């Protein structure tokens, strides 16, 4: 049983899937209430309650913003083990990965079985057609009934507004989290500037993802569980799906339905799974505000910051950085698995 909504944009006719609910609280923000109408692919109307969130004054410096916000925040690290038993009939088992960067042939673990598989972006090194085809073949071999994928900043060819930056900027403008220029043929990416340039010339690349559901500012419902996926991140290195921090980011997060059960973004929110090896925070302040004060999903799944891998909670929401690759681009981090309770009266189909 499937269904899919695209919000504030053209809808893609893709199979549908199902979801549940969540609560929350915390840091002070000024809020403005409003109701808006969302058109689904079937042209029906869904009225959702939303709150206009204020931009945090320190949004441009997430490290400083978190230093202030953390005084009123709870962050609990959670350690889990991979399940050894089948999930109960009233729960969906969700398996999460992210940031595999075309390195799935080198994964040394078995992907756990489950009902839903989620990949939170950066499944390629640069979004070349060959990489996308290889990923589609790999995910097609997984046994999960529902396979959900979003893009990340490395999927250059997936961003329709992406302009090739390498011909108009110096290499100093484009750096990785480690500070190394992405214009070099560095081992971690293994891609030359010419290869990156070629990748963005690929058209209709999303059509090659035939073995999964690709979400881009859109929602799918799996057995009553509502899953929303979005690829955007705060501007960084002028890669794909980058927008400036503050209002531009918030405008993307405002598209997330307030009744989302599982939120899938590529970027982490500030304060959860976003601490870089340099000691700075890379997460989005407005994403945390949106998640905690309006959307309140049960689970928030993301990647992007490899060294932020793991699970945390603010006492209400579970945050999962599912990055498979570590800081050295080795695909060594195990998938993260959770079971989510189905809504009353809903059975697995």
From TrEMBL:
Q: Where are the transmembrane segments?
A: none
Q: Domain Calcineurin-like phosphoesterase spans what residues?
A: 92-307
Q: Which GO terms describe its molecular function?
A: hydrolase activity
The organism that produces this protein has a lineage beginning with:
Eukaryota, Metazoa, Ecdysozoa, Arthropoda, Hexapoda
InterPro entries tied to this protein: Calcineurin-like_PHP (IPR004843), Metallo-depent_PP-like (IPR029052), UPF0046_metallophosphoest (IPR051693)
Its family? Belongs to the UPF0046 family.
Name the SUPFAM superfamilies for this protein: Metallo-dependent phosphatases
Species name for this entry? Atta colombica
Pfam families linked to this entry: Metallophos (PF00149)
State the protein's name: Metallophosphoesterase domain-containing protein 1
Coiled coil ranges (UniProt) are none
């Amino acid at each position: 049983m499937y269904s899919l909504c695209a919000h504030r944009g053209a809808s893609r006719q893709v199979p549908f899937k199902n979801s549940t609910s969540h609560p929350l609280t915390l840091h002070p923000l000024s809020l403005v209430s409003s109701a808006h109408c969302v058109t689904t692919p079937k042209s029906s109307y869904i009225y959702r309650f939303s709150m206009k969130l204020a931009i945090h004054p320190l949004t441009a410096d997430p490290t400083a913003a978190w230093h202030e916000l953390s005084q009123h925040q709870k962050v609990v690290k959670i350690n889990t083990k991979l399940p050894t038993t089948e999930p109960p009939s009233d729960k969906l088992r969700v398996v999460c990965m992210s940031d595999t960067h075309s390195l799935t042939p080198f994964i040394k673990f078995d992907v756990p079985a489950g009902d839903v598989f989620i990949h939170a972006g950066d499944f390629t090194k640069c979004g070349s057609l060959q990489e996308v085809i290889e990923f589609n073949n790999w995910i097609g071999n997984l046994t999960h009934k529902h396979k959900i994928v979003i893009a990340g900043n490395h999927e250059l060819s997936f961003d329709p507004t992406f302009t090739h930056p390498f011909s108009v900027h110096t290499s100093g403008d484009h750096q990785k989290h480690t500070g190394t220029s992405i214009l070099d043929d560095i081992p971690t990416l293994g891609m030359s500037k010419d290869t990156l340039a070629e990748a963005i010339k690929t058209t209709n690349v999303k059509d090659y993802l035939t073995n999964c559901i690709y979400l881009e500012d859109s929602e799918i419902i799996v057995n009553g569980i509502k899953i929303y996926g979005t690829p955007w991140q705060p501007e960084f290195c002028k890669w794909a799906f980058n927008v400036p921090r503050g209002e531009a980011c918030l405008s993307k997060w405002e598209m997330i339905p307030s009744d989302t059960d599982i939120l899938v973004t590529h970027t982490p929110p500030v304060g959860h799974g976003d601490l870089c090896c340099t000691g700075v925070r890379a997460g989005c302040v407005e994403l945390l505000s949106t998640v905690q004060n309006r959307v309140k999903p049960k689970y928030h799944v993301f990647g992007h910051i490899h060294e932020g891998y793991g699970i945390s909670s603010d006492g209400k929401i579970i945050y999962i950085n599912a990055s498979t690759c570590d800081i050295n681009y080795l695909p060594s981090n195990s998938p993260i698995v959770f079971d989510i309770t189905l809504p009353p009266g809903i059975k697995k189909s």
